[in-house]
Amino acid sequence: MNPLSSHVTLHYLPKEIDSEYLDKIKEILERNLSSDFDMDISGINCFVPNKKTLILYLEPTIPKSIKTIRDELIDINPFNEITDNGYEYIPHITLGKVQSLDDLDDDSIKKIISELFQIIQIFITQKKLAETLGIFRVNSLITPELQFPIFSKKLIYDRTT
Hints:
3-stranded antiparallel β-sheet, 3 helices, disordered C terminus
């Protein structure tokens, strides 16, 4: 994972977005975000969707406004191209994904842990954790993944105050 592209996914939008739909999204964001927006890291955890895969993630503290935004996005777009996996929505910042635990030896595990701690250190030392909230179109077919902003809003949040 690239720590510079860290994000919390709220909802997957349809492939095609017209200007009217984008205006609805902007209105939802403007109505629910305020200058006292605050998000921090509360812990580290993992998903194990099957016996061979491990997804390690940071647990952010999610303000009520973000939960409201997610609910309103679902209200205007309850169905999209993404199949619901049936799991409860858990806001998270993905640190890394191990596709096949069976293929790892001790040195590989140590390397993964070392890289994850470097990424975690970046989050801990950042002065601004949540600087921008945005809507991005993502191309996951390219490595590293490309993210194109459709709309973004600068947030005022400084952990030093």
